[in-house]
Specification:
single chain, mainly alpha, 5 helices
Amino acid sequence: MAVAGQSYIQEREGVLFVGATRVTLSSLIGAWQTEGYTAEEARPAFPSLTLAQVYGAIAYYLEHQAALDAAFRDDAEQYQQRRAQDRQERADFYHQLEERRTRLSGSTVQPPRSAPDDHPQAGQ
């Protein structure tokens, strides 16, 4: 019996995805490498993937590791450049955002204080 091969990776608009899902290969490999997930641990983190897809994506990565590592590095550098440019072009917005974050992080909600024991326990 001949068994047809399965392609676990699809390229759409220049981005590598795991099968027909919206999970990018870079996000799955990042979790697998950086977070130290096993394939079994990565599966619940990406519920749209089957375990076979996770293993297939990891196998694809290992077969193309040098090229993919370079592409992932380039993508990260381009992201950082776009982020820095955006922060420079919209400095007022990011300044206001930081002020709000600072204000919100300093305003923690305190639980209500309980009133003195107005109702003595039975038998007291």
